[in-house]
């Protein structure tokens, strides 16, 4: 809904509240009109139910208010002597409308000095639990959110199994846009695997989707800079669950799209280009911070056969086997058409008079049909430049060479993945651009050549109607030759350049998709480790950003924890002597 529609909805809610409680306000010694005045009526109600005025603030925070409303309904009933389990049940499951019945049919007396202490252990436990959920949701939404690195796109800078704290206040906390959702979870409720929010993902015009709040972000104390690592909602997310295949396209609210973490290499107003795998911003090569450990794809040829011991020694975990195919088959157009149809994305690495060496998304069926053979001594591996130099000096290695794509790649932005290389540009993930990163308020020329780059911005991200008639472009039913951007955009890429689904494929990230800034690694779990080595002790309690190499503060934490327990022991001992 728009801001105006939300205002009308808010006033209707206030009217419903006033009509259902004005008599109760009178019985509590207040004026009946006070039940109808927005916000003020909540402050007065808190006094009636003998609760602090700051509870009013909680009633207007999305998601938290879903917890607070039932609490206030029950507290209102109890303030007028309706204390039974049935009263509580009716108050909650009629969505508060039981108060209408009480207001108009019951002759009640307001209890001014009502005890706020829970009468049973169950009641006390529920109260404590609700309070804990409210506090945790506030912290989670506006201050700090836990996050786990799920993929290797930032390897070796951030590792799979790193547990992070993501700051919301650096870039400014974004208020929730989805008003009806389960607290403390993202897009799916754990274990039961059902959607955690109210939204019709198959019908954009549904009433459920009208409950979305407009985008709003509180001021932060930092702007996103080049090289910042950023957590954001994946702009092109159309999946039901972030780690499960989708059976169809699922439309999702912005704040419920899958959380991604990448490095921001391009900020609003930048011109970005990628040359041979290196990023250039405004014509100058982007120099990554010392802590960044970018990985690139290298052809790795062994002198004998593939050496598993060597790969373990150099910690080579990400690699692809390559295949040999008869040259006559490889150069057959029917074979190439078949591979395009199967979306195998097969690329030639080398060839001689009899065979070609290829790599790609090859399944068992393709392998058998084309009579492929696995290479015995050749792999492609993701390596840092430092590790590649070390391998060149190893006597067991015949060749180490950086692999740079030269052919046009299917699915590179703004091209869609359809099995056919782009006809718009001859770009690939190693050689790309230049491309402009849109800035709020900036105007660009809009024509048939530039439209593919900005089409998704104009329609999906900024909500305009777009159509093309001949050579004319219509935005909101008016011919447009220029377009002014409504918000800032960013270019997010992984440090693991050849194993990262990033902006080279999905394009720009809008400002309203920004979640926060990773600041601290409190735990790091290596699923391939054994025993105590499953924990990466050197990464625990390290900062994500900063100059120089990361340093673990875990030992200092343990010292402080030990001092605390020692101090507590002697304090209790001294107190016991004093009481004797």
TrEMBL record:
The lineage of its organism: Bacteria, Pseudomonadati, Bacteroidota, Flavobacteriia, Flavobacteriales. SUPFAM superfamilies: LexA/Signal peptidase (SSF51306). It is found in: Membrane. It is a single-pass type II membrane protein. Pfam families: DUF5684 (PF18936), Peptidase_S26 (PF10502). The chain crosses the membrane at residues 6-25, 54-74, 86-104, 125-143. The keyword Magnesium does not apply. Residues 125-295, 483-523 form the Peptidase S26 domain. It comes from the Bacteria. Its EC number is 3.4.21.89. Keywords: Hydrolase, Membrane, Protease, Transmembrane, Transmembrane helix. PANTHER family: CHLOROPLAST PROCESSING PEPTIDASE, SIGNAL PEPTIDASE I. GO terms for molecular function: signal peptidase activity. It catalyses: Cleavage of hydrophobic, N-terminal signal or leader sequences from secreted and periplasmic proteins. Gene3D superfamilies: Umud Fragment, subunit A. This is Signal peptidase I. Belongs to the peptidase S26 family.
């Amino acid at each position: 809904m728009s801001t105006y529609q939300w205002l009308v909805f808010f006033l209707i809610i206030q009217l419903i509240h006033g009509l259902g409680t004005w008599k109760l306000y009178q019985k509590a010694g207040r004026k009946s009109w006070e039940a109808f005045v927005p916000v003020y009526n909540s402050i007065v109600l808190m006094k009636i139910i003998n609760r602090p005025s700051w509870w009013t603030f909680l009633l207007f925070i999305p998601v938290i208010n879903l917890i607070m409303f039932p609490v206030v309904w029950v507290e209102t009933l109890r303030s007028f002597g309706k204390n039974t389990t049935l009263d509580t049940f009716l108050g909650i499951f009629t969505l508060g409308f039981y108060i209408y019945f009480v207001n108009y049919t019951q002759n009640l007396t307001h209890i001014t000095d009502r005890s706020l202490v829970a009468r049973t252990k169950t009641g006390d436990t529920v109260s404590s639990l609700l309070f804990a959920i409210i506090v945790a949701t506030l912290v989670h939404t506006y201050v700090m959110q836990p996050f786990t690195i799920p993929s290797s796109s930032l390897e070796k800078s951030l590792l799979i199994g790193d547990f992070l704290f993501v700051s919301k206040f650096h870039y400014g906390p974004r208020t929730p846009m989805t008003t009806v959702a389960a607290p403390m979870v993202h897009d799916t409720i754990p274990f039961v695997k059902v959607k955690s929010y109210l939204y019709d993902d198959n019908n954009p015009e549904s009433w459920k989707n009208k409950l979305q709040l407009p985008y709003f972000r509180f001021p932060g104390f930092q702007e996103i800079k080049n090289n910042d690592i950023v957590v954001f909602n994946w702009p092109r997310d159309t999946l039901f669950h972030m780690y499960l295949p989708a059976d169809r396209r699922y439309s999702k609210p912005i704040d419920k799209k899958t959380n991604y973490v990448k490095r921001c290499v391009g900020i609003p107003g930048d011109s970005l280009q990628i040359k041979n795998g290196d990023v250039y911003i405004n014509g100058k090569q982007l120099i990554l911070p010392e802590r960044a450990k970018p990985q690139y794809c290298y052809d790795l040829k062994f002198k004998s056969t593939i050496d598993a011991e060597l790969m373990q020694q150099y910690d080579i975990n990400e690699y692809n086997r390559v295949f040999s195919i008869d040259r006559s088959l490889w150069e057959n157009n029917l074979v190439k058409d078949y591979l395009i149809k199967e979306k195998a994305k097969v690329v030639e690495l080398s060839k001689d008079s009899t065979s070609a060496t290829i790599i790609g998304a090859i399944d068992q069926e393709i392998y058998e049909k084309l009579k492929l053979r696995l290479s015995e001594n050749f792999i492609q591996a993701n390596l840092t430049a430092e590790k590649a130099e070390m391998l060149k000096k190893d006597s067991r290695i015949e060749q180490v060479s950086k692999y740079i794509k030269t052919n046009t790649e299917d699915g590179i932005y703004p091209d869609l993945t359809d099995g056919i290389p782009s006809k718009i540009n001859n770009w690939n993930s190693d050689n790309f651009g230049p491309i402009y990163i849109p800035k709020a308020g900036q105007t660009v020329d809009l024509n048939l050549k530039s439209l593919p780059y900005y089409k998704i911005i104009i329609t999906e991200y900024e909500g305009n109607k777009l159509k093309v008639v001949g050579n004319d472009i219509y935005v909101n039913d008016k011919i447009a030759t220029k377009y002014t951007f409504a918000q800032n955009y960013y270019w997010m890429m992984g440090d693991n350049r050849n194993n990262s689904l990033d902006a080279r494929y999905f394009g720009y990230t809008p400002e309203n998709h920004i979640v926060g800034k990773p600041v601290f690694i409190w735990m790091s779990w290596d699923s391939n480790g054994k025993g105590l080595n499953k924990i990466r002790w050197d990464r625990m309690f390290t900062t994500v950003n900063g100059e120089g190499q990361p340093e673990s503060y875990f030992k200092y934490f343990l010292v402080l924890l030990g001092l605390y327990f020692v101090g507590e022991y002697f304090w209790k001992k001294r107190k016991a002597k004093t009481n004797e």
